C-alpha cells in the first residue's frame, strides 16, 4: 500500500492523499519526501493546474510528524531530518500552483502547518486544528499564522495550543471554505482554480508570499511591474472576449 495516493478527479486537478490512516496520517520523512517529489513533478506538468492535499479516512487530515519514527532516531539523525523537513516544507509553501488542503478531520502539529502552508483550506464540522508546539516548549507557525488570522488570534492559538473546531476556524479565517462535504468542497475549489489562467495565479501567489515586510508602495509597484512584464498584457478584446461576444449577440 502506497503512503501517497495520486488521483486525477477532474480536468486540471491532481489529488494527493496522505495514506497512513492506521497512524492518523502521521507524516513520516519518507511520506514527506514522496509528497515533495509528487509536487515537483506536478510543477512541470501542464495538465496539472491545481492540487488537492487530503488525508485518508474521515478522522484525520494528519496527526503531525510520525513520533514513533522520530523516537527511533539518534539525536544527529533527528537534527538532519528536521533540517531536511524545513526545506521540504518551504518548497511546499512556494509551490508555483495553487494547493487546496482538504481538512476533513483533525490536523495536529505538522498537519496544521501543512494546511496553513496551503493556499486554501476547506473543512467542515469534524475539522479540528491544533498547533501543539507550545505544549512541548517549542514554537511553530509564528512566521505565517498571523497573516492568516491576525496577530491576536495567532497568539491565542500558538500560546495555548488549544483545539479549534471547524466552525471557529472558518469564522476566524483559518478555513477558507466550510461545508459538511469536505471532499466535494475541495474538488469544487480546485476545479475553480484550475479554470483560472495559470500564469496569473502563479504571480498572485508569488506577490503575496513576497509581500510581508515591504512597504505598501513597493508592493503596489511590484504588482504593476509584473502586470506590465511577466504577464505580458494582451489586447482588451482578447482579455474580455466573453464580454465582447455577448455584446455582439445582444447589442441592446
Key attributes of the depicted protein:
12 helices; 48% helix; 252 residues; 2 domains; 2-enoyl-CoA Hydratase, Chain A, domain 1
Q: How would you characterize the overall build of this protein?
A:
The chain has 252 residues and is α/β, with parallel strands linked by helices. The chain folds into two domains: 4-194, 2-enoyl-CoA Hydratase, Chain A, domain 1 (Alpha-Beta Complex); 213-249, no CATH class. It contains twelve helices and ten strands. It has helices spanning 29-43, 67-71, 75-93, 110-116, 145-149, 151-160, 166-172, 182-194, 198-210, 216-228, 236-239, 241-249, and strands spanning 4-10, 13-18, 50-55, 60-62, 99-103, 106-108, 120-123, 128-130, 164-165, 177-178. The strands form two sheets. Strands 1-2-3-5-7-10 form a six-stranded mixed sheet, with helices on both faces. The protein has a four-stranded mixed sheet with strand order 4-6-8-9. Helix 1 (29-43) links the parallel strand 2 (13-18) and strand 3 (50-55). The longest helix has 19 residues, at 75-93. The chain is globular. The termini are far apart. The model has no long low-confidence stretch (mean pLDDT 94).
Amino acid at each position: 500500500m502506497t503512503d501517497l495516493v495520486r488521483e486525477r478527479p477532474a480536468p486540471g486537478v491532481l489529488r494527493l492523499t496522505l495514506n497512513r490512516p492506521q497512524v492518523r496520517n502521521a507524516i513520516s520523512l519518507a511520506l514527506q519526501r514522496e509528497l515533495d517529489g509528487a509536487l515537483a513533478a506536478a510543477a512541470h506538468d501542464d495538465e496539472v493546474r491545481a492540487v488537492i492535499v487530503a488525508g485518508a479516512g474521515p478522522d484525520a487530515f494528519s496527526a503531525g510528524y510520525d513520533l514513533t519514527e522520530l523516537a527511533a532516531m539518534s539525536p544527529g539523525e533527528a537534527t538532519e531530518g528536521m533540517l531536511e523537513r524545513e526545506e521540504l516544507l518551504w518548497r511546499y509553501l512556494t509551490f508555483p500552483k495553487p494547493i487546496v488542503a482538504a481538512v476533513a478531520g483533525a490536523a495536529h502539529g505538522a498537519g496544521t502547518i501543512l494546511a496553513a502552508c496551503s493556499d486554501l483550506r476547506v473543512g467542515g464540522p469534524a475539522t479540528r486544528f491544533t498547533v501543539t508546539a507550545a505544549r512541548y516548549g517549542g514554537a511553530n507557525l509564528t512566521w505565517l499564522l498571523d497573516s492568516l488570522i491576525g496577530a491576536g488570534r495567532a497568539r491565542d492559538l500558538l500560546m495555548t495550543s488549544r483545539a479549534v473546531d471547524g466552525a471557529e476556524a472558518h469564522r476566524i479565517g483559518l478555513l477558507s471554505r466550510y461545508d459538511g462535504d469536505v471532499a466535494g468542497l475541495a474538488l469544487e475549489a480546485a476545479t475553480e482554480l484550475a479554470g483560472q489562467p495559470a500564469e496569473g495565479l502563479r504571480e498572485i501567489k508569488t506577490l503575496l508570499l513576497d509581500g510581508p515586510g515591504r512597504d505598501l508602495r513597493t508592493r503596489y509597484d511590484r504588482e504593476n511591474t509584473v502586470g506590465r512584464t511577466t504577464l505580458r498584457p494582451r489586447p482588451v478584446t482578447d482579455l474580455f472576449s466573453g464580454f465582447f461576444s455577448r455584446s455582439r449577440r445582444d447589442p441592446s
